Description:
By secondary structure, this protein is mainly beta. About 10% of the residues lie in helices and about 45% in strands. A six-stranded mixed sheet has the order 1-5-6-4-3-2. The longest helix is centred in the last third of the chain and has 5 residues.
Amino acid sequence: YGIPLNGILETAFVPASRVLPVRDAEAFVWRDRTLPLVRLADIIGMQSPVEAPQRLKVVVMAAGDDLVGVAVDGFAERMDVLMRPMTGLLVGMPGVMGTTLLGDGSFLMILDIPELIG
């Protein structure tokens, strides 16, 4: 999965000890601001790792007028790609902006994180 760079403010490593439960959600402090934390695996319906990491890889991004931290499995390199919009049966798939074909022949789904977290 990929996330467009235009919404990303920063990537960060957040120690698991700094993630705090808030009601039925999680939050962390980033640059003297408390931000909600969502886990990408949870919002796309994938299984989270069995063992909790000691530090989370977090993408801090804008979601409307607010900021949110999205915990991801890892960071990859920055890529300039030509995104193709979804077509056919997948055109109404929520949270997916489009796809792109990578150099090795595999494809990358480009996520619309603000739409996914609603």
